[in-house]
Amino acid sequence: MFTEVLLEKVDSTHLHAVREAEKGVKESLFFYAHTQTHGIGRKGDAWIASGFENILGTFLFTLPQGLPLHNLGQLLAYAIITVLEKEGFVPLFKWPNDILLTYKKVSGILCTIKGDKAIVSYGLNVNMKRETLELIPIKATSLFAESQRTFSLEKLRRLINEAFTKDLRIFCTEGFTPFFPRLAKKLAFIEKSAVIEGEAGVIKGLSPDGRLIFEKNGAPHLLTSGSLEIWQ
Question: Could you report the per-residue pLDDT of 83-109, keeping only the tens digit for each?
């Protein structure tokens, strides 16, 4: 289980965890913040959110040798999806590391490896109101916006930490195989045209090892990472 560490104000829980990893911290830790001054998302974009309304957190742990690194974000996505489904939502997984509700982003995940340390972060829009969501330059939503219900951040944080801890143990012994069938069914935009790193193609599904099956010029390609844009 991860030891929780509250950071009242920090530049970024992810950057803080990277610094701790560089110091050689041995414990498995989960940092969460009330205020981030420079929260980061994928591609270095700013993550606009308050830790008083949302969860802004980072897991830091030692990574066993030989595990496929590209599955770590998917593993956390799996845990978050599990918790959201129990709360009555119907989440989808947008490859490589986003979670959607009604095809709007509700959660984003970021992974960094430092030596034998894994730093896996997530932001989950929980009680964010529509007027704040409208400030985000992409289609975004929150659990409150989708349900008109207010949620306990402490409860959700605990449930996600428990689910991720359980799934990480399974992953370390059995790999990605136990998670593939369900996550593959949750994949968003199957058979949709898309652009990944400037290359146009069609999303065909997930491979059993968690790579995206992306068809270009009639031929399937397996991708472990990339920036995905859907053609409308």
Answer: 999 999 999 999 999 999 999 999 999
Per-residue pLDDT tens digits for 102-122: 999 999 999 999 989 999 999
Dihedral sign from CA coordinates of 166, 170, 175, 177: negative
DSSP code of residue 225: -
Beta strands 29-36 and 3-10: pairing type? parallel
Beta strands in the chain (DSSP E): 3-10, 29-36, 55-62, 92-94, 98-101, 104-114, 117-124, 193-196, 199-206, 212-216, 219-223, 228-230
The per-residue pLDDT of the chain, averaged, comes to 91
Are the CB atoms for 141 and 99 separated by under 8 Å?
no
Q: Which two tokens stand for residue 150?
A: 């207010």
Domains and CATH numbers, the chain: 3-186 (3.30.930.10), 193-230 (no CATH)
